[in-house]
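ok, trying the design again with the full structure, not the truncated one.
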């Protein structure tokens, strides 16, 4: 089975980040756990780097002005029409604000896999919201979408 960075990130999120673990897990212990779970070393390193960069980001400061987003060619190569529609839907329903949307897009671009599936994008949004202070309500709403299901049509 060929695991990728998303598989490692989802495993980490479900096992360590979203749990009731006391304190922050030790990086070496996490790496050993991932190796024992069968993940390739290269994918583990990429996932841990991705998470380190996410935690280094500044806290999201909500913008009050609506924003219009034009995607670059590189972003469009990673985010298909359905994925861009999901981001717009999440922003329109208040789960993402323009600043958190940009953080999600930044994290999408940091993953070197094209294109990003809709399911993986939902997980990335969930991880971004989890990493930000004062985003508990948005996180809970997104968690329902990740573990539940999205409406058939997003308009």
């Amino acid at each position: 089975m060929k695991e990728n960075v998303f598989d490692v990130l989802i495993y980490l999120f479900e096992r360590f980040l979203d749990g009731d673990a006391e304190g922050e897990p030790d990086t070496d212990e996490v790496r050993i756990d991932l190796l024992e779970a069968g993940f390739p070393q290269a994918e583990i390193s990429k996932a841990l780097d991705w998470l380190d960069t996410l935690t280094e980001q500044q806290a999201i400061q909500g913008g009050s002005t609506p924003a219009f987003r034009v995607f670059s060619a590189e972003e469009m190569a990673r985010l298909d029409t359905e994925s861009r529609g999901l981001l717009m839907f999440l922003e329109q329903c208040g789960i993402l604000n323009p600043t958190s949307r940009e953080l999600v897009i930044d994290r999408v671009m940091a993953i070197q896999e094209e294109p990003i599936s809709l399911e993986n994008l939902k997980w990335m949004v969930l991880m971004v919201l989890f990493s930000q202070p004062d985003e508990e309500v948005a996180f809970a709403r997104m968690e329902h979408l990740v573990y539940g299901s999205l409406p058939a049509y997003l308009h």
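Keeping the full-length input from now on. Residues 41-56 form the longest helix (16 residues).
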